[in-house]
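USER: Fancy drafting a protein?

ASSISTANT:
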Amino acid sequence: MDGTMHAPSGAEPRVAAHSSVNGNGAARRLHDEWLEEYEAGVFMKLKDLGDGTRELKRVRFSKRRFGEHQAENWWKENREKVYERYNIRTSQRASSAAPTHSA
């Protein structure tokens, strides 16, 4: 996938979790990390920390939808909303990195 995620207001984000099927046919999660499209062209890699909080591993923006400055501005305007929506761990909020711009 190219770019980072962002979902339009009211839309449910798409989630891709790593899973496999065991001998009984039941799916199980192999990792507590997943990629989610927050909105068109904005993708987030999240990790469940097991205590009700999550870690935001990476934010990527599609070059097809965002120029470099557009992505930076989007992140500045929407960072707190993202942290609230996904219950991002408090210590990470203080030390958030700039988003990644990808092909």
